[in-house]
Design goal:
279 residues, alpha/beta, Cobalt-precorrin-4 Transmethylase, domain 1, three-stranded parallel sheet, 14% strand, elongated
Length: 279
């Protein structure tokens, strides 16, 4: 699995050049694009097409070639194979047949964007491109609403405006870093917010490929919202009853209710006494 440059040919590693020169066959997502890369580095290894539309059938053919003793390199149009690009199915099939899979690291737009975003890097989730099918896209956005990790998304220029509006509507205003045309001549990295970015691109036509790095939901704020929702949805007495009806001791029930509602156990006890006094 050989990573290739996402824009700047200087990002091609010496190891990648050697591997692509030594293998028996290169499985390329776009042979027309890859031939330019191979010619630049004077690599003459035969290529075969391996893309999203033949990824299952071709993976079987490539697996058989591997079983026959051939060495195969998988490359995508740009970046790391298997990351929002073909490669996953081939790896699974190879491993299922006991074939050794070797990563040859290099450029990856998601990681490059993350490390220069100014957003949190310790915990992040990668969603690639949002689904085009409406119901699936809505389901993914709903999951992201409460995501506390930094979110990394890819987007094409012709869909960027709609995606920014959807993210703003679903996630609310968040810190956002927009990375455009990474490693290329017109590379741009701009830290802003979802609100400002959506407003900006209503007036400006997006150009180039984008990576969006979005701050996750604040964990403390998320907990507070859930506690507020509980307090608004059920009375204290009914909340207590939910726990005691399961056989829980009153003392333990008060502790659980206090946690659910973001209160101290003492406050729960006091409020229960006040409610009982009024009835």
């Amino acid at each position: 699995m050989v990573a290739t440059p996402i824009g700047n040919l200087e990002d091609m590693t010496l190891r990648a050049v050697r591997i692509l020169s030594e293998v028996d066959l290169i499985a390329a997502e776009d042979t027309r694009g890859s031939i330019k890369l191979l010619n630049h580095f004077q690599i003459h290894t035969p290529m075969t097409s391996y893309h999203a539309y033949n990824k299952i059938a071709k993976a079987r053919t490539l697996t058989q070639a591997l079983l026959d003793g051939k060495n195969v390199a998988c490359v995508t149009d740009a970046g790391t194979p298997g990351i929002s690009d073909p490669g996953e199915e081939l790896v699974k099939m190879a491993l299922d047949h006991g074939i050794k899979v070797v990563p040859v690291p290099g450029a990856c737009a998601a990681v490059n964007a993350l490390i220069c975003s100014g957003q949190g890097t310790r915990r992040f989730c990668f969603e690639a491109f949002l689904p085009q099918e409406k119901k699936e896209r809505e389901a993914v956005l709903e999951e992201l609403r409460e995501e506390t990790r930094t979110i990394v998304l890819y987007e094409a220029p012709h869909r960027l405006k709609k995606t920014l509006d959807l993210l703003l509507e679903c996630l609310g205003d968040r810190s956002l870093t927009i990375c455009r045309e990474l490693t290329k001549k017109h590379e741009e990295i701009r830290k802003t917010t979802l609100f400002k970015a959506a407003a900006y691109y209503r007036e400006q036509e997006p150009r180039g490929e984008y990576v969006l790095v979005i701050a996750g939901q604040d964990r403390g704020e998320l907990i507070r919202k859930k506690q507020e929702a509980v307090r608004d949805s059920i009375s204290l007495a009914d909340h207590m009853k939910q726990y005691t009806d399961t056989g829980m001791e009153r003392k333990e029930a008060m502790k659980a209710v206090a946690k659910d509602r973001g209160l101290s156990k003492r406050d729960v006890y006091r409020m229960l006494l006040e409610e009982e006094a009024q009835t």
